[in-house]
Design a protein that fits this description.
The protein folds into 3 domains: 6-340, Glycosidases (TIM Barrel), CATH 3.20.20.80; 348-428, Golgi alpha-mannosidase II (Immunoglobulin-like), CATH 2.60.40.1180; 450-567, Jelly Rolls. The strands form 5 sheets. The chain has a 7-stranded parallel beta sheet with strand order 7-6-3-2-1-9-8. By secondary structure, it is α+β, with helices and mostly antiparallel strands. 20% of the residues lie in helices and 26% in strands. β2 (99-105), α5 and β3 (145-151) form a beta-alpha-beta unit. The protein has helices at residues 6-26, 33-40, 68-71, 85-94, 131-142, 176-194, 212-225, 293-305, 324-340; strands at residues 42-46, 99-105, 145-151, 162-163, 169-170, 199-203, 230-231, 273-277, 309-314, 348-349, 358-363, 366-371, 379-381, 388-393, 400-403, 408-411, 422-428, 450-453, 477-478, 486-505, 510-519, 522-529, 536-555, 560-567. The relative contact order is 0.09. α1 crosses α7 (212-225) and α4 (85-94) packs parallel to α9. It comes from Anaerobaca lacustris. Belongs to the glycosyl hydrolase 29 family. Its EC number is 3.2.1.51.
Amino acid sequence: MKTCGHNQAVRAVGIFLCVVGVWAQSCPAADDPMQAWRDMKFGLFVHWGPVSLVGTEIGWSRGREVPSEEYDQLYKRFNPTLFDAEAWVTVAKRAGMKYLVLTSKHHDGFCLWPSKYTDYHIGNTPFKRDVMRELADACAKHGIQFCTYHSICDWYHPDYPLGSPGGRTKKPNPDMPRYYEYLRNQTREIIENYGPLGIMWFDGEWEEPWTLEYGNELYAYLKGLQPTLVINNRVSKGRQGMAGVTAQAHLNAGDYDTPEQRIGNFQNDRPWETCMTICQQWAWKPDDVMKSEKECLQTLVRVVGGDGNLLFNVGPMPDGRIEPRQVDRLMEMGRWLDRYGQTIYGTRGGPFKTTASLASTYQGNTIYIHILEWPDGAITLPPLPKRIVRSSILTGGSVTVRQTAEAITIVVPEGDRDPIDTIVALTLDGPADDIEPVALPSASLAAGKEARASNVFQNSDAYGPDKAFDDDPGTRWATNAGVEQAWLEVDLGRPEMISRVVISEAYDRVRRFELQYADDGTWTTFFEGERIGEKFAAGFEPVTAQRIRLNILEATDGPTIWEFQLLATRKTPLVVTP
C-alpha cells in the first residue's frame, strides 16, 4: 500500500460502518463478544519489557531518563529467567480476573513475540523464549481470555515519523504508508499466531501521523480477520484525552471507551473500561507506591457501579516475576471476590449513580448497594419506582431498610459496617434494568460551584479546578510535574457556614497545607494540616464565607485532588437526601 488518500479513506469508513452493522445484526445477546467481555468486569493489564532492567517508564523514558541509544540496547541484557506464564495466569485467576492484556508492543517498538517483520523482539534477547505463546497457552488452559495491547505509535521504527522523547522529535526519512503496512502485518501476525484474541487494545493514536482513515480501515481489516475481536476506541481518533470518552462515535471506530488512571463517569449507553496501575508507574519501578487494599477494592466497585470494567495493571520485574507484594494485594482482591463476586460479575451499574462514597450494581430483580464510607447516621437514597420485597446485608450483621414514596433509608449498626464495603441487597418486585439511573444529590456546598486554581496540568480542561468539585471520583484537578506549591479555590456563590471538610488526594504528595477564607480581600487561615492522602476528613469551628481556598504549601511533586468537599454539618458527603 503506497497511499491512504481520499478514495481509500471513503472506502475505509464504508467498510467500518458495514462491519459495525453486520456485527450488531449477526450476534445475538447470548453470543455477543462485547457482552461476554462486559460480564467479565475485571482484567489484568501487563506492561513489561527490557525497560524493567532500569525501572523507568516503558516507552516514555526512552530519550528522557534513559538515552535512546542505551534504551535500545537493553534487550541484549533482557533475560527474565524466572518468567513463568503459569504463575502469571494463576495470579490473575486467583485475583478474580477473567482476561489478561499483554503489551505485545509499546511505544518503544520492542515486541514480546518473535515477529518476522522486525529484529527488535524477544527472540533476539538472551531469553529467546516466546512470552506471548506461553501466556496464550496458559490462558487457554486456565480459562482466562488472552488479549494484547499494541501501540500505534512507534518511536523506534525508522518509518514512523516521530521519535523520542515522547514523540517530540522528527525522524529524517519517515514513510507513514509503509509504517502502516508494518502495523497491519504485525497485528495480522498476532491474530493468526496467537488468536483468537479477546481484545486488541490499541494506544498511541493521539499523534498526528495517525488519522481517522487509518484507524477505521485498520478496525475493519482486523474485524475481517476475526469477527469476534473486541477493539478499543484508541484504534481511531475519537478519544477525548485521558477521560477516554469517544466523541462522534458514529464516525470513529472502536467498541468501547478507555478512561485512563481514573474511574470513568457513570455511562450505561456505551461500554467502557478504566485502565489503572496498582502502583503509580505502568512498568516496574523499585519501591513504587502501591495502592491499599481498600483503594483497590473500592476502585473496582466504583468502576463496576458506573457500568464499566476495570483493567488493573502490574509491571513485572526484570527477572520475570510479578512483584510479591503486588501478588499479595491481588490475592486480597481475589478473596473478596470469592465472597462477593455475585455483586460484580455479570451485573450492570446502577440504578443509583456512583459517588465517592456509594455505588450500586444490579442483576435481575436484585440491586446491590455498596456503601464505601459511612455517615454519622443512616443512608438516605432517592425513591425507586418498584417495591422492595426483601433486603439483606451480605457482609454480615443486620440491616433495616425503610421504603416510602419519598426515600429509601438504610440503617446498619455501627459494629456491622464493613471498613471497605458494606453490601446491602435489595430484592424488587420486578427487574431493575428498566429503572432510569438517578444521581445522588451532593451534601457538599462546593459541588458544581465556580472554581479557580494557580496551576492546571498542561492547561488541560480535563484537569481543571472544577474537576475537584464535580462529585465525580473519576475526575481530578491536577498540576504540572515539579509544582510544589499551589492553591485551589471555590466560590460558593453566597456566604455559607461550613464546619467540616473532606478531601481526596491522588498519589499522596501533599506534605503541608492550610484552609483559608476570603475576608475583605484578605485570605485568613482557619485550619492547618500536613498530609492529605486518599481520604482526609476534619471538623473545625464553624466558618461563614463565600470563597474558600485549599492552599498547598509543600508537595513532593505536582499535587492532584480528586474531590474537595465542604460540609455545613458534621456529616460526610455520604448522606444523600432526595
